[in-house]
Amino acid sequence: MRYIQLYFQFLNLQLKTILQYKSDFIIGVFSVLIGQINMFLLTILVFSQMDVLAGFNLYEMFLMYGFFVMVKGMDHFYNDNIWSFAWNKIKDGRFSEILLRPLNPIFYIVMERVEISGLSEVIIGLVIIILSGNVLHLSLGVLDIFLLCILFICGLVVFFAIKLLFSAPAFWTVCCGEFMTAGIEISNTSKYPLTIYKNAIIQKILLYLLPFPIVAYFPAIFCLKRDTGTIHILNGSISGYEIVLYSVVVASILLFVSIKVWYIGLKRFEPTGT
Amino acid sequence: MVSYLSKYSVFALNALKQKYAYRFKALMWSFSTLFNMLVQYYLWKSVYLELNGNFMGVAQNNYLTYISFGVVFYNITSCMENMNIAEDIKTGSISMNLSKPLNYKMMVFFRHIGSKMGEAIGLVPLMVVAFVLTGCKSMSLLGVLFFGVSTVLAIILFFLFSYLMGILTFWTTNYWGLQFFANSIMGLFSGQLVAISFYIELGKGTEFVTSSLSFLHHPGFMMCFNILGKIAYCLPFQSMYYTPMSILSGIIDKPSDILLHIFLQFFWIICLNALIHILWNKAQKKITIYGG
User: Fold this and answer.
1) Which residues from B are below 8 Å from A23, CB to CB?
2) Cα–Cα distances in Å, from A132 out to A43, A90, B215?
3) What is the C-alpha to C-alpha distance for residues B258 and B147, in angstroms, rounded to an integer?
4) How wide is the angle at C-alpha B226 spanned by C-alphas B223 and B229, nearest 5°?
5) Closest partner CB to A181 (pick from B32, B38, B177)
6) Is Membrane found in the keyword set (chain A) (predicted)?
7) N or C end of chain B: smaller count of CB under 10 Å?
8) Of B29, B56, B212, which is closest to A178 when you measure between CB atoms?
9) Which chain A residues are Cβ-neighbours of B43 within 8 angstroms?
10) CA angle at A86 for the pair A81 and A92, rounded to the nearest 5°
11) How many Cα atoms sit within 13 Å of A160 on the Cβ side?
12) Which residues of A touch B194 (CB under 8 A)?
């Protein structure tokens, strides 16, 4: 409860600083928009030559992309500060300062800064989902929407856990921004259906080790009421509730492991003396 | 000439040593671009699978080479010296450099070449994966030779563009925004997003659209891509990426076309140099403001 109150106080402070740096905010939003235009052009160009790519048509592809942008935007909004932990918090000694605060260090890092331009991605993602869902005549009941929210949270957890996991080496090497960038680049795999990666090893890695398909691919096939087809989890394709179950289990295990690893790093952490 | 080179090569050597000391970082960076390569490769591979190996007149092997080696190529040619120049200008240390009996542009150029050589180790994993993925089936000896020439020109062009952006810091404080803007425009018009030839093919007419979606058959849609293709050839970016990569991958294979594109690269080198010259002279009048 105390944490929730604190979070809103921090958020309030953050919003005030945004009013101060308007041009940075506008550039941030602008950058998001141009990125989307490029992606839109690429997709349109590909689908001008075909109707179906790896079992998905244009609107189904947009639906999936919408989920990707929404989850990524939400993560960008609330959980951007962990980058500064990976790049320079330990190097400049600011991390030692955090440890002295009477708060959980992970929580403190998360709430120290919000990146408001991430919200524009959330809105764009939501608009893409609604528009493409409309064309596809998706019929979702209340229960489906509830389960979709759970999938959304699972997607956020996956992003959070992988960022945390890939920032943990900073405890050993002081700075691991490059390593974390490499980890986060893998999230781009979830823009497209898992079925396009026609390589058994890559598919297995994406299903069990770095489960980015939970971000967009699984929510999309859940909405479309399909099964995973040729992609087998345990020993068969899954659909409907099984997708939600799989996502919750995998996301929770990943979260548990990443927090564990982070705390192992924290135990052996020695300040650099700066 | 020899003394001239040895004077500047010290800067190159210095930058090389600096970057080489952090070679593990360069290796990590290359891994992050590696995933990009894989995503692009598998996306286009599945596109080609749907279309029996031909997408708007470009064969599968050619385009997969274009995509995969393009990532390696970008790592070789990309230049971020504008950030260093911006720092030099903001902190005022540029005045130190200007008071030396050296040409600042040449100094930055050699620094850039040196740091690229220091990071070269990062190219190894990318090259290996690109070779394994594509098998280099679409490369010809002539293409590789012209690619070599074109790459040297592209490195110079990229540097000149970056230098130009750096000089603009004299007039704007928000160089991150500038950098970002240039990057996104570059992605669209350099051929990194898709080969420029696709814009042109699609711009030719709606009969090339084989999709059944009705809005894609609208003439306005075709016009859009037509304009994109035309803008791409009016900007220097396609000379920095599309020209060398499409020569290597065989998307451009007629000798006359190759020579025309290389000529265009020369043209842009002259243009950018002229522009830098003009801006630099203007900036030198302004430089007194920044005491350092």
Assistant:
1) 174, 177
2) 14, 44, 15
3) 9
4) 155
5) B32
6) yes
7) N
8) B29
9) 192, 196
10) 90
11) 22
12) 41-42, 45
Residue A41's nearest CA partner among B83, B189, B62, B8 is B189
User: B18 by DSSP, 3-state: which?
Assistant: helix
Q: Cα(B205)–Cα(B193) distance, rounded to whole angstroms?
A: 21
Contact A243, A233 (CB under 8 A): no
Give, in order, the Cα–Cα distances in Å from A18 to each of A25, A26, A85, B173. 7, 10, 21, 18
Per-residue tens of pLDDT for chain A, all 274 residues: 778 888 888 888 877 777 766 777 777 777 778 888 888 888 888 888 888 888 888 999 999 999 999 999 999 888 888 888 888 887 777 888 888 888 888 888 888 877 777 888 899 999 999 999 889 888 888 998 999 999 999 999 999 999 999 988 888 887 788 888 888 888 888 888 988 888 888 888 888 889 999 999 999 999 888 877 777 777 777 777 888 999 999 999 999 999 999 999 888 887 766 6
Q: Which of A167, A148, A195, A183 is nearest to A83 (CA)?
A: A167
Alpha helices in chain A (DSSP H): 2-20, 22-47, 58-78, 82-84, 94-100, 105-112, 118-135, 142-167, 170-173, 177-185, 200-204, 217-223, 241-267
Distance CA B134, CA B121 (A): 21
Chain B nearest C-alpha distance from A139 (Å)? 22
Largest CA distance in chain A: 60
Which residues partner with A227 through β-bridges?
A239
Could you tell me which residues come within 8 angstroms of residue B19 by beta carbon, excluding any fewer than 6 positions away?
A: B26, B114, B115, B117, B118, B119
Place of tokens 């031909």: B54
Helix (H) or strand (E) run with residue B58 in it: strand B58-59
Distance between CA atoms of residues B38 and B134, nearest Å: 12
With a CB cutoff of 8 Å and minimum separation 6, the contacts of B93 are B87, B292
Chain B segment 190-219 residues within 8 A of A by beta carbon are 193-194, 198, 202, 208-213, 216
Contacts A188 to B, Cβ<8 Å: 35-36, 39
Please report, as a single letter, which amino acid is at residue B82: N
Pairing mode of beta strands A52-53, A56-57: antiparallel
CA distance A229 to A218: 12
Q: Which amino acid is at B291?
A: G
Among positive and negative, which fits the CA dihedral B158, B164, B165, B166?
A: positive
Nearest CB to B55 within list A24, A30, A49: A49
Rounded to the nearest angstrom, the minimum Cα separation between B122 and chain A is 12
Q: Which long-range contacts (CB under 8 A, 24 or more apart) does B188-191 make?
A: B188/A37, B188/A38, B188/A41, B188/B228, B189/B228, B189/B231, B189/B232, B189/B235, B189/B237, B189/B238, B190/B237, B190/B238, B190/B240, B190/B241, B190/B242, B191/B70, B191/B232, B191/B237, B191/B238, B191/B241, B191/B242, B191/B245, B191/B246
Task: Please say whether the beta carbons of B221 and B206 come within 8 A.
Answer: yes
